[in-house]
Structures are given as structure tokens and as C-alpha cells.
Specification:
Strand content: under 5%
Number of domains: 1
Protein name: CopG family transcriptional regulator
Order of helices and strands: HHH
Oligomer: single chain
Number of strands: 0
Shape: elongated
Radius of gyration: 22 Å
Largest sheet: none
Structural class: mainly alpha
Organism: Phormidesmis priestleyi ULC007
Distance between the termini: 40 Å
Helix content: 55-70%
Length: about 100
């Protein structure tokens, strides 16, 4: 039987990068180094991981907000009652959070 991981290949395309300088409090830097060491990874990789996770989370929130705004606009074109639109949007938010 084939191992599913054998067929799994990670294809990374090189991306243009830019070096940035960042001032970080010494105690925070020491904590980051400890976490990186505990995960057996270089500090730079851990920082990129954290930045990537935070960025994806923020982009997801921005996208969700745009979807709700667009939905409100579409509903407003089809439903005259602001109260009904508000109720629908609140229900959608409750179901998706």
C-alpha cells in the first residue's frame, strides 16, 4: 500500500524578498529565541511563520468584512426594511462565528 506522504511534494516558488530592520524589546527577542530553539528552527523562520500566520488571519477578517458589506448592499437593493437587513446580517454573523 502506498504511503500518501510519498506522493505529496511541496512546490515552493521563489519570491522576491526585502530585508527590513525591526526594533524589538530585548526580553521579547530572548523569548522568541527560546521558542525558536524549542521548535528546533532558526529565529528568522519563526518570525516569518508568526508574520505569515498573523497576515493570513488579518486578510481573512478583511475578506469577511468585505463579503458582509457586499451582502448588505445586495440585500438593500432587494429588501426595503433596514431592520430586516440588519436581522439577516446578524444571523449570518452568528452562524459563521
Amino acid at each position: 500500500m502506498n504511503n500518501p506522504e510519498e506522493n505529496l511534494k511541496l512546490h515552493l516558488r521563489p519570491r522576491v524578498t526585502k530585508t527590513v530592520a525591526l526594533q524589538v524589546p530585548v526580553d521579547v527577542l530572548e523569548s522568541l529565541k527560546r521558542v525558536a530553539d524549542s521548535r528546533d528552527m532558526p529565529l528568522e523562520v519563526l518570525l516569518r511563520l508568526y508574520i505569515g500566520q498573523g497576515l493570513r488571519q488579518d486578510l481573512t477578517e478583511v475578506f469577511s468584512e468585505r463579503v458582509l458589506e457586499t451582502m448588505a448592499q445586495v440585500l438593500a437593493r432587494h429588501i426595503q426594511s433596514e431592520e430586516e437587513i440588519s436581522t439577516i446580517l446578524q444571523e449570518i454573523q452568528a452562524e459563521t462565528t
